[in-house]
Amino acid sequence: MSDLDTRPHSHLQSQLARVAELLRRQHLVEDLAQRQHGEHQDLVDGLLHRQHLAELQREIDALHPADVAYLLEALPPEDRLAIWDLVKADRDGEILLEVSDAVRESLLADMDKPELLAAAGQLDGDELAELAEDLPDDVLHELMQRLNAEQRERFQSAMAWEDDQVGAIMDFDMVTIREDVTLETVLRYLRRLKELPHQTDKLFVVNTDNVLTGVLPIRWLLVNDPAKRVSQVMAADANTFHPEDDVAETAQAFERYDLVTAPVVDDAGRLIGRVTVDAMVDVIREESDAEVRERFGLREDEDIFASVWSSLKNRWAWLAINLVTAFIASRVIGVFEDSIHQLVALATLMPIVAGIGGNSGNQTITMIVRALALGQLGQASARRLLRKELGVALANGLIWGSVIGCVAWLLYDNVPLGLVMTAAMTLNLLLAALMGVLIPMTLLKFGRDPAMGSSVMITALTDSGGFFIFLGLATLFLV
């Protein structure tokens, strides 16, 4: 992966606006060329067209691959492909690694075999593994034939692990040294290298069997006496990971210990690779994006400019579930039609009870899902957390229920209605807190993502429950 991009978002927006304006001018010239004919007119249009293409080419060539990826994701399909055609072949591979999965599919679908080979042929074995699932079999086979033994081993190593394991994202570019040499020897060795691998903040110390014995931070190398041996300066208690470790947990460790790089070792302690902070940033971003999608029932990453059919396939499942829950809520209201006819105020007040319950439930479920993601919550502490959330819900219900109860009393000059409103809001907030804890914990118990459809489910339960509680109490005490 490329270096982390440090450009401010406003700068990226300016670049996007600039590219969009050049594309607009190009489309305008093309439209004029279709409407007008003539030798001189064709010449003028051709010159303008080439001028705009040259400007676009200069803009694209000056951009970091991550910035080009941003532009491609932000442009509609026709403009996206126009920009993609201007990207130089030796940069295609880097950019394909940066774009989202959905956009990558659209770009690869527009490329023929020679273009695919030229783009992917620029990548190392572990980088090629990231594109392997999206490449045609014949293209992947030919690319494998081009790899040398070391790169083929890297490719196979990366492909041997699941996407959520450290082995799938570990990097093989690292500097190793022996513990029995002096720091002066290490410095001379480093000076002979053309450059250090990206994100190199430490050197890995190994013995003759390639077993990791410690790490030597670069800053320690620079400030210590060059005559000292590595074994005298190195840190022997380095944070290490195994290729089968979960990437989300590894990302949490990187955040907790402020790591830039960390070694990856096998069961025998042999150094086999490293993980870097830029890979961890990608993991955190992808985890965050996935959690947001799961909460609202999106099954996979979706290109914002995807076709209607593609978007429909991605969204229909939870919308169908939501339709069923909405129908259930409507039937709950239907049961109390007579009560609503006798006291019309119920129809205007019941959305308040349901809405507040939904908001409260989403607050609770967000806290629980976050705690589960950070490993801060287990089955043992779930009961204590449930009691705490019920306490918060009870306090909020009594406070805000009393407020809205007073408002209902003043609006409709009906004290019992105000009391029912207070009781209904309190009970619905208690229901929201209960479901906000139970839904993610139950999903986790059955091996599912705790965030999966949580927002849809909590809203459905608090809507139906809120209507039933409020209208039921009103029927018992007011009608």
Question: What can you tell me about this protein's structure?
Answer:
This protein has 21 helices and five strands. With 479 residues, it is mainly alpha-helical. A three-stranded mixed beta sheet has the order 1-2-3. A hairpin with a 5-residue loop joins β2 and β3.
Describe how the helices and strands are arranged.
Elements: H1 9-35, H2 39-61, H3 65-74, H4 77-86, H5 89-98, H6 101-109, H7 113-120, H8 125-131, H9 137-146, H10 149-159, E1 176-177, H11 183-192, E2 202-206, E3 212-217, H12 218-223, H13 230-233, H14 247-257, E4 261-265, E5 271-276, H15 277-295, H16 308-335, H17 337-342, H18 345-373, H19 379-412, H20 415-445, H21 454-477
Parallel strand pairs: 1-2
Antiparallel strand pairs: 2-3, 4-5
Could you tell me the strand content as a percent range? 5-15%
* Helical residues, percent: 55-70%
Structural class: mainly alpha
- Give the radius of gyration: 30 Å
Largest sheet: 3 strands, mixed
Number of helices: 21
CATH fold-level name of the largest domain: Tetracycline Repressor, domain 2
Based on Cα principal axes, name the global outline.
globular
Could you name the CATH homologous superfamily of the largest domain? SLC41 divalent cation transporters, integral membrane domain
Average pLDDT for all residues: 85
